[in-house]
Amino acid sequence: MIDFLQQLGKNTRTSFTKLGRGSFFLLQTISGILSVLPRPRLLLNQMYSIGVLSFLIITISGLFVGMVLGLQGYYVLSDFGAEETLGVMVAASLVRELGPVVSALLFAGRAGSALTAEIGLMKATEQLSGMEMMAVDPIKRIISPRFLAGFLSMPLLAALFSAIGVIGGQMVGSGLLGVDEGAYWSQMQANMDFRDDILNGVIKSIVFGFVSSWIALFEGYDAIPTSEGVSRATTRTVVNSAFSILGLDFILTVFMFGDN
Amino acid sequence: MQHTSTQDTLVGLFVASGIVGLFFLALQVSNLSSFTEHDSYTVTARFENSGGLKVKSPVSAAGVKIGQVTAISFDPKTYESVVKLSIDKQYSTLPDDTTASVFTAGLLGEQYVNLDAGGSEEYLKEGGKIDVTNSAIILEKALGQFLFKSAEEKK
Amino acid sequence: MDNSVTSQNSLVSVQSLSFSRGNKKIFDDISLEFERGKITAIMGPSGTGKTTLLKLIGGQLFPEQGSVTVDGNNVHRLRRSDLYNLRKRMGMLFQSGALLTDMSVFDNVAFPLREHTHLPESMIRTLVLMKLQAVGLRGARKLMPNELSGGMARRIALARAIALDPMMIMYDEPFTGQDPISKGALVHLIKSLNVTLGLTSIIVSHDVQETAAIADYIYVISEGKVVGQGTPKEIEQSESDWVQQFMTGAADGPVHFHYPAKDYVDDLLSTGNRY
Best interface-test mutation with A: which of B29, B70, B88 has the largest number of A CBs within 10 A? Predict the structure, then answer.
């Protein structure tokens, strides 16, 4: 019993110190963004490896999620003779929830884990401390551009995911199952609101991008500089990002859609 | 740092397609385009009962969407529901004796305002009033009446 | 070992420095002087914190006690921006080379120039080629770090360390894991850079022969203390058993071959626990 309490206390302490280190790291990273702005090349390179390389997985997943939604939605709605509202169902699920959440989870798995591994390896091979000794601040040079790129890419990726999903739903719904194409779009437009639905979805994806980039970079920067330490940090990135994204999604949903 | 120009192109494509995605969501998926690009005018209709009508419910004429509900309030003097309808400017030739009715799209569908054009030479203008209205059909009420009637007839 | 001696001519001066990691004392009140324009070596067995000492000099770690002075500046009292300015004049060669893996050899050497100067690209090219020529690898400029052998990576890292023409350079185990030819090349390079550029060099190493061949002065460290110092000649003739064992590489001596354990025969005959 005493052992258990001791362990609990120890764990609490380590997680709090980690949270403290993480917050300090975030502050440094954000203040480092100022020195990225005059050097767009640094940002551009990272937009490539974070955004462009996630493009394929996001668009293909978006297409399939949209098609599955079209199929499942049709079977449920046709029981009530309400196939016409398929567009609403597909768009609402994508824009409000699946777009931001699934693309953030994919982002954490694709780009987040790669970021952790990259930073962790740079630490393990002394590249970060080498940079420090060359009087180059690794936070400003390495971390901040990646953070900014992740933060900017996420809403774009989520929007792509939703947009392609809506088109996928339409392809299955009206192409395969015979829902009227005009009804698909007009019902959707009548019921989806720009501010309540689209904007809230974008805000969600911005929050997710912020949090998962932070987690990925911090886990890499904080990794034990050995191959085992880096591989553990990579796993932690995926797990912690998934928890944070899903938890935050619930909280944000309560605030955004709770009073309707 | 090699192939920077191809990289730049791809980043540009990525950002552009992301922005296209956002615009697509704003214009094609949500209703941002339908009433911000065109001007609209507002008319008021009073209903005895506006039923399940909501703000942003569609306003249509002959089955075509021409506007939307912008406000619903209760008039404590006349005990009526005051509904403000925002109608697209391009449909400015609605006669002033147009009838407004609250209809339901399908059995379980949402409710909307249907406008039936009258025969007047005068057209509805900004701030105009629709005098002839038909209230929402409340399913429970209709059923009750039907049952009551058939019971009466049996006697 | 008189701690109060501060030579006027020393560029780096470590004064009664103590540092520990966890409960283990890495340095216990040591004082070292590094003279300008000379090659000073710090020798000692693995795990005595020699790399830690370089990080303390570079201001990446903070000591518990004592001070480090580089060119008249107390490294650990400097403001961050001043420390960074000082570091521009300090080169460091990491054991692994620490080349940036996503850049070519050329870009690696150009990195400090691009970060700290606003020179036009044509001048950067000239400077980079000069530095690469100095380490004999001008022909390898297009290779990526993963295409280099260990010895080449270290030479490239050396070219990068001298890119900003520093006043001193710190070598962390430059000879470890190198074949004899690479070792020879590095020994030659360190010596010639020292002579031609007038660099102050600090070498941390446990490779006795190579280090003794080029060092002007040697400190031998063990268990957080300086156990011997002097010119290579003096060290070779040291009466200290410990220094003798280290320099000759005898398997047994003051440092025992066996890790502390209970009696061998008893251990073999005992039964029961696996350990």
Answer: B29
